[in-house]
């Protein structure tokens, strides 16, 4: 396993958002080769190799955009005045005046943590069906009663500690709690908890979309369908990344993302930011 592949596995296991960038095509004399890859974290840091420092500047800016909207991107980085690759609809093209020749196409895939779902009563027939179907839907199941950060909790204990589970999920800030129960029993459970109006609005006392479900698997389908519908309706930003600060390199005219490692210089009390150390040194020498 390559170092980047291992890093991808590690970040995925830690539920950290990142972008996996892979060089698809490259034209000489660029230093990147097809198959080179890297990960870009939410703070803009890059681990791996997808081209030199100037190419990284373009990749960093585009990768942070994909983290915000969750969409994949084919990024085409061209030097100023270079002949382009054959047309590829849907590609985002950036002209990088500082690129030392050649051209690169890089596929950017945002890797966002899977929605986290709690299931109380996972050993009941309905709970077990929810767990199985959740895996098919690429939802991640959290440990029992460890509900912090969960998008939803399914309460399928069928009367076993339902009130305790609901209270724990509410206290953990879970926005959607799906109680598998009849309408009569669900209302009784909620009444016994003495919930506020805000808390009660987060609980579905008779979980699921009405599809005429009869079997355990069909009930699980109806419950998860409701959860998926509400997850999609809320449509939050995939990653609440820190606001991106940018500046124009006064030498080459590139837009650069300002970060901890971005080359910069202070001249006559004014800060200037650069795509690479070479542009910075030229600017300082001419000042």
UniProtKB/TrEMBL annotation:
Domain TRASH: 249-287
Domain of life: Bacteria
Name of protein: XdhC family protein
Organism the protein comes from: Paractinoplanes rhizophilus
